[in-house]
Design a protein that fits this description.
This protein has about 210 residues and is mainly alpha-helical. It has one domain. About 70% of the residues lie in helices and about 0% in strands. The chain is built from nine helices and no strands. Helix 3 packs antiparallel against helix 7 and helix 7 runs parallel beside helix 9. The longest helix has 25 residues. It is globular.
Length: about 210
């Protein structure tokens, strides 16, 4: 429903997701429970939700309230994926893939199809065959956490440069919030993905401006 052609359904879906994430966050703080304990915030589901939210940026947005909720949802979802992958930070993709059940693999594959990027295809290829990438700037395949989060950040950056100022604002605000919630080492790890679109806008290569 996050990617439904009808704008009203997309808008209501964003609001429902925001309510769900708020309840999960409140429950986590009160009970100190893990994201894994909730239906929509299991790793494969949350990654698919995060991917759908990022891809929704390609569609027209309705108003500032929707923009604020989109930012909140994206930040929660990507930080959630980052947090859930904390225990897998030193696991390479083939080993990670082997731990998943088939329905979890299917969700990841759906998410990679939505991302439609060389990095996503590389991740699938590496997890299934452990082959070496010929990309000039391949993801760190020894860090599955980085691979998954980087795919989302890069997708957002590409969309920000292609769409209007409102989408760019959501992406850059999300970047700032995400970077403030991860460690300094993680900021260094994701720095290229976040700074490249910002650099292109600041230097005028995108041909666009973002207020503030």
């Amino acid at each position: 429903m996050l990617l439904h052609p009808h704008s009203w359904i997309r808008s209501r879906s964003v609001r429902l997701i925001a309510l769900y994430f708020a309840r999960v966050n409140a429950s986590k703080e009160n009970n100190q429970s893990s994201l894994r304990h909730y239906y929509l915030t299991s790793l494969s589901r949350l990654f698919l939700v995060a991917t759908s939210l990022c891809c929704q940026l390609k569609m027209p947005l309705l108003n500032d309230a929707d923009s604020n909720l989109m930012t909140q949802n994206i930040v929660f979802a990507i930080c959630g994926v980052h947090s859930l992958m904390e225990q897998s930070v030193h696991i390479d993709p083939p080993a990670f893939w082997s731990t998943l059940e088939q329905h979890e693999k299917d969700r990841f594959l759906r998410a990679f199809d939505l991302l439609d990027s060389r990095k996503g295809r590389f991740f699938m290829h590496s997890t299934l065959t452990s082959s070496v990438s010929t990309d000039n700037n391949p993801p760190d395949v020894h860090n599955t956490q980085y691979v998954l989060v980087s795919l989302l950040l890069r997708k957002m950056g590409k969309i920000a440069l292609q769409k209007d100022a409102i989408q760019m604002g959501i992406v850059f605000n999300s970047y700032g919030n995400i970077m403030s919630r991860v460690t300094q080492d993680d900021c260094m790890r994701y720095g290229h993905d976040v700074l490249l679109p910002l650099y292109k806008v600041c230097e005028g290569y995108a041909g666009k401006e973002v207020d503030g």
